[in-house]
Prior knowledge:
By secondary structure, the protein is an alpha/beta fold. The protein has helices spanning 9-27, 32-39, 43-55, 114-118, 123-132, 160-166, 177-187, 234-238, 240-249, 254-259, 263-288, 297-315, 334-351, and strands at residues 5-6, 30-31, 59-66, 74-80, 86-91, 98-103, 108-113, 140-144, 173-175, 194-199, 203-209, 212-214, 228-229, 232-233, 292-296, 324-327, 360-361. The chain has a five-stranded mixed beta sheet with strand order 7-6-5-8-9, sandwiched between helices. A five-stranded mixed beta sheet has the order 12-11-10-15-16. Strands 2-4-3 form a three-stranded antiparallel beta sheet. Helix 6 (160-166) links the parallel strand 8 and strand 9. 42% of the residues are buried.
Amino acid sequence: MSLPRTATPRLARAFNDRLTLDLLVEHGELTAPRLRELTGLSRPTVSDVLQRLTDAGLIRTSGIAHADRRPGPRARRYAVVPDVAYVAAADLGCGPGTLHVTDLSNSTVAEIDLSAVVEPAGGAGLEEALRAAGVNALHTVVLAVHDVAVLSPGGSCAGLMAALRAAGCPAPMVESPARAATTAALRAGESRTFALLWLGCCVDLAVVLDGRLYRGVSGSVGALGALRVGTVPVQELLGGAVVRELAHRCGLTRADLAAGTGGHGGRVALAGLAANTATVVAGLAAVLDPGRILLGGELGAEGGEHFAALVRARLAELACPPVEVRPSAAGPAVVREGALLMAQDVARADLWPDTSTPYQASPSNGAAGTGG
């Protein structure tokens, strides 16, 4: 019979520290009394946490507040030290785009037009732009890449990697738009188990299981482009180039085609896209059984509820587990927002207290102490 597991004192302290830091990022500034209310921790424990984090240089006092804005005992306000580290992210959907830089409090520090600093100035231009914003170094850089060809020689972002190296930036994390958008959706309160089918320049998938983004053993979960429906790759059925070509043939914009406002020809083309999407969704539902699949990317966003309804109608004709299909509620900046959240998570995991210490077996059933 295995002994009950309890948190070590070190792990309990780390959890309390991380909880406090997360709350300070969420609320901006908090007093010790308010932290006690939000965490349920005792007065001595909150005092110890604040002292530890202050000594570590992760938080600082940001002023004095009167409790409940009424005359009475004054309380120090605490906030995260924002410039402990800086992170950056860019959505490379349609070219170099903009590098968004934030501090650890998630406040925007700079928005750098990469096309203006990568060519012809190269890394020197990027380094100067960062220095002008008061950023001496970046802890983490995340690039949301819709098509890896943009980073290849001759691609629209070919010089970006070299420019980042020349500017002294760390090797960037390259993520898919589906994963970035899913990270943002999860943080915004989406259900704990769902999948997001990205219908944009690339056809991509991201899966969340029990509140965590699932990457698989090799990290390649979601690469649907080469998956075949019959003999045709999914990318050639639903990729951005296909949708643009269909819209062009119908004399429509992509948005009008997706929204079903383009006359008979456009409606027929959109019905074909919906049928292909339903086939892919049925396969995903049969394998993953996620309960909910969101439609993202340009086709999912611009088609909205109209396109989702067409997919649901075709899905009803197919044999698959029950699955809710609806458009992603995310806005146009969701990929960049998600990439920044990923960068923030990496930096905080590195710089903030480690909560990965194993539990210890204990002969008692009592909860671990949270003091100290």
